[in-house]
Amino acid sequence: MSTNTVDNARKVTTIRLSEMKQRGEKIAMLTAYDYSLARLVDEAGIDVILVGDSASNVMIGNPTTLPITLDQMIYHAKCVTNGTKRALVVCDMPFGSYQGNSKEALSSAIRIMKESGAEAVKIEGGSEIRESIERILTAGIPVMGHLGLTPQSINKFGTYAVRAKSEAEAEKLIADAKMLEEIGCFALVLEKIPAKLAEQVSKSVSIPTIGIGAGPGCDGQVLVLQDMLGINKGFSPKFLRRYADLATTINDAIGHYIEDVKNVDFPNADEQY
User: Fold this and answer.
1) What CA–CA distance (Å, rounded) separates 259 from 21?
2) Active site residue 169
3) Do both 184 and 264 map to the same domain?
4) What Å distances lie between residue 177 and 115, 118, 182, 185, 198, CA to CA?
5) Cross-strand bridge partners of residue 89
6) Is 1 part of a structural domain of the chain?
7) What is the pTM of this model?
8) What residues does 137 pair with on adjacent strands?
9) 3-state helix, strand, coil in the chain (%, to 5)
10) What is the pLDDT of residue 8?
11) Same domain, 158 and 66
């Protein structure tokens, strides 16, 4: 049972996240991709649910986030919004839906908002996608930025190693963060960058920062739900803390079910009409 004492009746909005940063209250964000788990996550009192393009890995089994399509993201986001009452629902814009064409970026964002019911979109990158972000913002669509390790650029980086360790890359990240704030992004994900840099960025911008592998100096934290619940045991980065071991629990439960069926212990006399 959750011990969270947040007023669950009050809907989380982009403005509320800004207010949380101003008063020093940390923001808790998790991913979700389906109705049933989104409902549980929301009822537990989470502030933000991210419908991440990590669905490509977690729900479909792809090795990277690149293959997931806009239609698939809209499907997952619709499932999540159907199960969410309080949390702010943010949907990732998938690879190929915004890069290099600001008109296509706006069209993609509008489809996400209209067809899924999500309340904001998240988009990876800095100055190189400024035009796309600005065009999306002109339509009144809230945008969450994403800097540092940007998984959609894995083929460019060639590795999922920590980003912005060099002075030049760190300076660009700081400049990009300030640019994203300036043009109107409401929040910013910082992924897998040095903790000191993440804290510096968080203090230099007025918008909330959400860290993943970026230390405690960010204004909030995000993890992939299946990772923190111990469903995906094959993924164990340094930043991941597991709060449950559901892989073992599920395996044991299914094993007991199989045994009961084989032994004709299920269904029993009380489990039939």
Assistant:
1) 51
2) no
3) no
4) 29, 24, 9, 9, 10
5) 49
6) no
7) 0.94
8) none
9) 45, 15, 40
10) 53
11) yes
Do 229 and 262 fall into the same domain?
A: no
Mean pLDDT split into 10-residue runs, the chain, 273 residues = 56 98 98 98 98 96 95 98 98 94 97 98 96 97 95 79 86 97 98 96 98 97 97 88 97 98 96 95
H-type helices in the chain, by residue range? 14-22, 35-43, 55-58, 70-82, 102-116, 130-138, 154-157, 167-183, 195-204, 225-228, 246-262
Q: What is the pLDDT of residue 4?
A: 58
Q: Is residue 216 part of a domain?
A: yes
Examine residue 267 and say whether the peptide bond preceding it is cis (omega within 30 degrees of 0): yes
Distances (CA, A) of 262 to 74, 255, 256, 265: 41, 11, 10, 8
* Count, residues in the chain: 273
* Contacts of residue 255, Cβ cutoff 8 Å, sequence gap at least 6: none
In which domain, by residue range, is 235 found? 14-242
What are φ and ψ of residue 85, in 5° steps?
-115, -40
Same domain, 26 and 92: yes
Count of domains in the chain? 2
Two structure tokens written together for 29: 């964000």
pLDDT at 152: 87
Q: Under a CB-based contact definition with an 8 Å cutoff, are residues 221 and 210 in contact?
A: yes
Give the active site residue among 119, 124, 181, 191: 191
Q: Are residues 195 and 255 in the same domain?
A: no
**pLDDT at residue 109 in the model:** 98
* Same domain, residue pair 208 and 268: no
